[in-house]
Design a protein that fits this description.
Elements lengths: L2 H15 L12 E6 L15 H19 L4 E4 L9 H10 L4 E8 L9 E6 L5 H11 L8 H4 L22 H19 L3 E7 L2 H4 L5 E8 L3 H7 L2 H22 L41 H4 L9 E10 L16 E6 L2 E9 L2 H11 L7 E6 L2 E3 L1 H8 L2
Parallel strand pairs: 1-2, 1-3, 3-6, 4-5
Antiparallel strand pairs: 4-6, 7-9, 7-10, 8-9, 10-11
C-alpha cells in the first residue's frame, strides 16, 4: 500500500481514538508540565548552554510556584531529571492523568543569530514558514526514537506533506488553549522584556495528541547571545516560572468563575549584570524613590522571629525598586510593611493572627488598591493562605 495512503489512514484513526475529556467540573485540578527534550535529546544548543537544561529548570520551578499559588492543583511532570521521554509518552501521560491543562516548556533557536523574542504556541496549521520551522525542530525529537516510523505512522517531521494530519485537528480545546496562551504570552513579554512574537499556531505532535487545552512556550532564543545569557541565569528562570504561574492562576480563577484577583505581574525583569555591572534595577513608577537601606534595614526584612506562628497580611503593591514604606503613594494605607521575594519588593498592610481580622484590613486597602489580596506567613516564611486558614481553623 502507498506510504501516503497508510499515513492518512493512520492519521484518521489516531484522531478517532484520541479521547476527549471535558474540563473538570470542579475546576482546574490537574496540570501536566512538560520540560521539552532531555537525555539523549539536547534540543537546541547555544554558546554555553543546552535547551534541555533550561527547559527542566523552568518546568520544575513552574510546578513549585503553581503549587504555592494553587494548593488544590495536582502537578505532574513528564520528566524531573535529564531523561528522554518520547513525544508519545508525554501526551499519553497527560491523557492518562486526565489532566485539565498541558504546558510544554521550550527554548527557540535559529540559524539567524539575531532572531529574538518569546512566543507561545497552540495547536493548529502553520501560517508562516517560520512557524513550520519551529514545529519541525520540536517534532524532530521523534527521530531519536527506535522504530519511530511505525510509532508515528510514517510521519516525517521534515516533510511538509506529513503535516496534513493536523488539518484533521479538532478545535474542541482551541478556544481555551488560546485564552491560556494569551495570558502566558502577555506576562512573559512584560517580565522578560523580550520581543513579542505573539500567540501562534503550528503543528506540534505533542499538542495534537493531548485531550485537553494545551500550549507550548518558546521562552526565548538560545541561539541569540543576549537572550541566552538571560535564559541561563537562575534568577531569570525563576522569574519566568513566576510569571507563567501567575498566568495559570489567573486562567484558573477565570475558568472557575472566581473574583479573587491573581498576583500582579512583574513588569520589569532585573537587568542581567555584566561582570562589573552593579547597576540596580529601575522601578517603572517614577514617583517611587529608593529607600535608605540603612534606615529601613529592619522593615525590609521578612517577618522576624518575634512574629512566630501564623500571620496574615494584605499585599497591595510590588516593584523591583526598594522604596520607602512611607512613600506618599502609600498614604492612607495602614501599617505599611514590605518584604523581598523573587527580586521584587512587595508591600503589605496589616499584621493579624486572624483571617477574619485581616479581611477588615483588606476592605480598607482595596479602596485605594483594588487588586490587593491576602497573604500568609508561618514563622517568617510565606505559605498558602488556605494552609494558614486550615492551621488556624478559620
Amino acid at each position: 500500500m502507498n506510504k501516503k495512503i497508510c499515513f492518512l489512514l493512520f492519521a484518521m484513526l489516531s484522531f478517532c481514538v484520541t479521547p476527549v475529556f471535558s474540563q473538570a467540573k470542579d475546576g482546574i485540578k490537574k496540570v501536566v508540565i512538560d520540560a521539552g527534550h532531555g537525555g539523549k535529546d539536547a534540543g537546541a544548543v547555544g554558546t554555553k548552554s543546552k535547551e534541555k537544561d533550561i527547559n527542566l529548570a523552568v518546568a520544575l520551578e513552574l510546578g513549585k510556584r503553581i503549587k504555592e499559588k494553587c494548593p488544590d492543583v495536582e502537578v505532574y511532570y513528564t520528566r524531573t531529571s535529564d531523561v528522554y521521554p518520547t513525544l508519545q509518552s508525554r501526551s499519553k501521560m497527560a491523557n492518562d492523568k486526565h489532566a485539565d491543562l498541558f504546558i510544554s516548556i521550550h527554548c527557540n533557536a535559529s540559524t539567524n543569530k539575531t532572531a529574538h523574542g518569546t512566543e507561545t504556541f497552540v495547536m493548529g496549521l502553520h501560517k508562516t514558514e517560520s512557524n513550520l520551522a519551529v514545529a519541525r525542530r520540536e517534532n524532530a525529537s521523534m527521530l531519536l526514537e527506535d522504530d519511530y516510523k511505525n510509532t508515528y505512522g510514517n510521519f516525517d517531521p521534515n516533510s511538509p506533506e506529513s503535516y496534513v494530519i493536523f488539518s484533521l485537528y479538532s478545535n474542541a480545546y482551541l478556544d481555551r488553549s488560546v485564552k491560556l496562551a494569551a495570558k502566558v504570552q502577555n506576562n512573559l513579554v512584560r517580565t522578560s522584556q523580550f520581543f513579542d512574537r505573539k500567540v501562534q499556531q503550528a503543528g506540534f505532535w505533542v499538542l495534537h495528541s493531548v485531550a485537553m487545552p494545551s500550549i507550548l512556550i518558546e521562552l526565548g532564543f538560545i541561539s541569540n547571545d543576549e537572550e541566552e545569557a538571560k535564559l541561563v541565569n537562575a534568577d531569570f528562570q525563576k522569574q519566568l516560572a513566576e510569571t507563567i504561574a501567575i498566568a495559570f492562576a489567573a486562567y484558573k480563577n477565570e475558568a472557575e468563575g472566581k473574583a479573587q484577583p491573581a498576583e500582579k505581574v512583574p513588569e520589569l525583569a532585573p537587568k542581567t549584570p555584566a561582570p562589573n555591572d552593579k547597576t540596580p534595577a529601575v522601578a517603572k513608577d517614577d514617583n517611587l524613590k529608593p529607600a535608605d537601606s540603612k534606615a529601613e534595614a529592619v522593615q525590609s526584612d521578612a517577618p522576624a522571629d518575634r512574629d512566630a506562628g501564623i500571620h496574615f497580611k494584605v499585599q497591595f503593591y510590588a516593584t523591583a525598586e526598594n522604596v520607602s514604606v512611607s512613600n506618599a503613594k502609600f498614604s492612607g494605607v495602614p501599617h505599611v510593611g514590605k518584604y523581598q521575594e523573587n527580586n521584587l519588593w512587595k508591600f503589605t498592610s496589616g499584621d493579624e493572627t486572624s483571617y477574619q481580622e485581616i479581611q477588615k484590613v483588606l476592605k480598607v486597602v482595596k479602596e485605594k488598591f483594588p487588586d490587593a489580596f491576602v497573604i500568609a506567613f508561618k514563622d517568617g516564611k510565606k505559605i498558602p493562605v488556605s494552609e494558614a486558614r486550615q492551621q488556624t481553623r478559620e
